[in-house]
Amino acid sequence: MSRKVSTRAKLRYWFDNTMSRGTTGLIGWLAIASAGLIIVLTTAIELVQPDGDRDNPLLLLWQTFITTFSLAAPPNGRWQELALWFVLALGGIFIVSALVGLLTSGVNRRLEQLRKGRSQVVERDHTVVLGWSDQIYTVISELVEANASRRRASVVVLADQDKVTMEDRVWHRLGDTGRTRLVFRTGSPLDLKDLEMVNLNEARSIIVLAPDGGTAEDADAYVLKTLLAINKGPAFRGRPHHVVAAVRDSRNRAVAKLAGGDAIVLDGDDIGARLIVQTARQSKLSVVYHDLFDFGGDEIYMTVEPTLVGKQFGQALLSYRECCPLGLRLADGKTVLNPPPGTVISPGDQLVLLARDDSMIKLAPRPLTADPSAILHAVRGPAAPESTLILGWNRRAGRIIEQLDIYVAGGSTVDVVTDRADAAAAVARLAPKLRRLLIRSKAGDTRDRGVLETLDVLAYHNVIVLADDDLDALTADSRVLVTLLHLRDLLAGRGPGIVSEMRDDRDRALAQLTKADDFVVSEQLVSLLMTQISENRDLESVFEDLFDADGAEIYIRPASYYLRPNVSVTFSTVVEAAYRRGEVAIGYRVTEPGDGHGVVLNPDKEQVMPAIDRVIVLSSS
User: Fold this and answer.
1) pTM of this prediction?
2) Which of 293, 350, 409, 447 lies at a CB distance of 3.0 to 4.6 Å from 329, suitable for a disulfide?
């Protein structure tokens, strides 16, 4: 049985609803109260004034309005009149105080909302970063470098973090971001409503970051859901988006690409494993990759050069003084680095070039010349078996061993030493799949000096020290540093090259004190790749060819393969010598680097080189 609601209750409900609207409702009631007070007291003052003293009613209304908000009152008059003016002044005090309080609280609420990062982003042609991890610092710093020449560049970050905390962390790590404006918003990239805040449909590119911690499966699930939200969300469906992401487990890449539509999805662990293997076999290769992938040094560009159409690619190599042709992007979109000798540049083909800046991409006034008398075509001997020592274990270790099996000669060996309980079973599963490697496993703590002394480290060709991904980055890198310090003391500058994998790029400076040859921060390099592709989608095919075992790869080879000893030549001679071997020379390493790495990429081809001991080339074998 329904109960009749009283008029008073209805009015009270209506009043409560208007008050619940916040500052707007409260100001409205204050306005009504002010109007009522002024009208009532104006009428009362008009009634109590003597007939001869009465003013124009409208003028009196204006006076009472002014008095209400300025607390002004006539200095004399009848006591009834002064009493009403006093009541009006008290009412004015209350109304003004309430209004000031409401406006202050409203402004504070608005500021608090802004601090929470929940307002709509109206940026256009911006880069959106979805998610938060340690990769964010590398991504933002590279985007700042890439946007140095743009007038109104902006990067918008959406993550499940407090807005102020994100701003403080980025400012602490990166400092001033120059022309690039950073905008942070608090929200979940998995929430369609939150995604609408960052104006994805007007973004020039979108980078998806997996969160730190957890398993590879959890991280990839986060990336997959984010890609699905972007690609299938009602507000974004059917719109072209340039999305770049990375998965940790190769098995999840295919389904991530399905979820992301035309999104570019990198295989982070596979790229990291390839880099570690290649770097372990070639000292200072990590420096070359870092220079290629970041925006601070030489960058990869693509350009059409009509004057070279119909000519062989080899002729293009000596047509530029301050940039290095690397290969061709064919008209069908496929990229071929170090194309076969005799390849003709066709209409629609683009040259893939290494240059310091796009303003440097211009043909030399005349074809550059080489010194044929300085060129030497030495024959490399057959590859000999190699022995590799892996200290530590993580989820990439199995992939590293599989990649190593591709590069080494038959009869090579790899020994794994770790205290991880799951390593022995993983090694047992790997062993039958390997064609050229004999794999052995030994339990031991790599931080234990006694364990390392029993390994005869001097007898190995390559040593790889891996960071444990079951631990946090600080602890994992600390263990690597302890192992490296022991190795440095044991080897005393002799023996094999050492490659260490770090989790945090900030530990690189400390690791350099151990005198290891190379340091690979896999997640940082993957971040660099993602940022490069976010700025230029066509670079995906370049990096795909670079990391393909069947494509061209970077090698650091002895200068004696290319040049006669004790000759003084320009880099154009090195380019010609490499081309005669079916390779593309992109740089060199000086003989005495001192405290630096000595690696020089894309040198001026007409300047005489210092004494060099290595040539950096793109080669298919």
Assistant:
1) 0.79
2) 350
